[in-house]
Design goal:
With 407 residues, the chain is mostly helical. It folds into 2 domains: 122 residues, no CATH class; 273 residues, no CATH class. The protein has 17 helices and no strands. Helix 2 packs antiparallel against helix 3.
Length: 407
């Protein structure tokens, strides 16, 4: 038996039993053969076999857990009923939750128990999502998985160029980001219709507001009826960008807040009111969406991002301290978040003062807004272009005036 105090042993008994009951609660509610007591016993068995007996006993108990799960499934099949494969798998995992508690891996054990219970409880929601999936959507999900979970992790996470500015993983992260925004946009619009675009605009803007514009341009080319909703989404992405940059300052450099709260606050209020004006129009729009995301568009955007990083580095090397603002503009055109983080890092290093850091963040945010104008122009939709310029322009003018007065 492991060298445990009575208190530690009692704690592990109680926690493993509680976690087993927690998982079994859902199965009991769903009227399955295995319920609260069975799951609690499986978790408790895993814990006790680990704490009291040698390792080979734990292996034997694991084999028993597998055998029991198989027997349950076979019994269900023989009775021409649901074989309860999900319940059997949950029992097996619950055994190892107890094992984790037994070896003092408390946090992983609790996390796994919560995940298992969540998966068991959302059967209806998962079925409703998968029921309407097309082959193209499944293929797109696989492609996105390759982008995010196969290619991204194997890329080097360090600069590979002589100047130390090209990080392959950072560049590829942008590609994954664009694809992810496309996925979110596709799902929300499919589920909630054109009004769901507002959610995509805001939450996509928290990640990269320029990417939201690129995504909605593709949508309105396919369905011009979405134009005004797309305008609201683009303006909301600018609002979200301001919220995100202000949040970064709150977390990383609170000393910047007195100089940035008013400019960003004014921009957020004006942008929100402008977007609400269009969202309040109860338009009936038939949404035609064909693909969850475009890998081609994501790769093109990643290439543009690479070019901007190189230009920004060149500006700093060429112009010295003045290159800070040039770099802020160029970085802001692609990602104002990266420009904000750079300004904060320079402030914390003592390279620039609070005022210059705040101005750099404002400049980067303005550049992020301005870069949307040519993108909107090349959408070949004059109504979209005019309204985006008008809404974003009002935000910029208010922000610039406030910055001049208070920074």
């Amino acid at each position: 038996m492991a060298d445990l105090t009575l208190y530690d042993f009692a704690f592990r008994i109680g926690l493993s039993t509680a976690l087993g009951m927690f998982i079994g609660l859902e199965r009991e509610w769903a009227h399955k053969e295995a319920g609260i007591r069975t799951f609690a016993l499986f978790s408790l068995t895993g814990m006790v076999s680990t704490v009291i007996f040698p390792p080979y006993v734990t292996i034997a108990c694991a084999v028993f857990a597998i055998a029991f799960a198989i027997i349950m499934s076979a019994y269900g099949i023989s009775q021409k009923r649901d074989p309860n494969l999900t319940t059997s798998a949950a029992l097996f995992i619950t055994f190892f939750v107890g094992v984790l508690i037994g070896i003092d891996q408390i946090i992983p054990g609790v996390i796994i128990a919560i995940i298992v219970t969540a998966l068991l409880s959302i059967k209806t929601e998962l079925q409703s999502i998968t029921a309407d999936l097309t082959a193209a959507e499944v293929h797109a999900a696989v492609e996105f998985g390759i982008l995010a979970f196969v290619i991204y992790p194997i890329l080097p996470d360090h600069p590979i160029d002589p100047w130390g500015v090209i990080n392959p993983r950072t560049i590829w992260l942008m590609v994954v980001l664009i694809s992810g925004i496309g996925f979110v946009n596709y799902y929300i619009m499919k589920r909630y219709g054109s009004k769901g675009a507002a959610y995509t605009g805001f939450f996509g803007g928290l990640a990269n507001s320029t990417a939201v514009v690129a995504e909605f341009i593709n949508r309105i080319k396919a369905e011009p009826g979405l134009t005004m909703v797309a305008v609201a989404a683009v303006i909301l992405s600018d609002v979200a960008m301001c919220v995100r940059n202000l949040g970064l300052c709150l977390i990383l450099a609170p000393s910047l807040l007195p100089k940035l709260v008013l400019p960003f606050g004014i921009m957020i209020v004006i942008g929100g009111l402008f977007a609400y004006r269009y969202l309040s129009r109860q338009e009936t729009v038939t949404v035609k969406i064909h693909s969850p995301f475009s890998i081609r568009n994501a790769l093109v955007f990643g290439t543009i991002f690479l070019g901007m990083v190189m230009l920004s580095a060149f500006a700093v090397f060429e112009f010295g301290s003045a290159g800070f603002f040039v770099s802020s503009v160029l970085s802001g055109m692609v990602s104002s978040a990266s420009a904000t983080a750079s300004s904060i890092a320079l402030l914390q290093a003592g390279t620039i003062d609070t005022r210059m850091s705040a101005l750099g963040i404002i400049v980067a945010s303005m550049a992020s807004i301005v870069i949307k104008f040519p993108l909107a122009y090349f959408s070949n939709n004059r109504q979209f272009f005019f309204n985006v310029v008008m809404g974003a322009g009002l935000m910029m003018v208010a922000g610039i005036i406030t910055a001049i007065l208070f920074i």
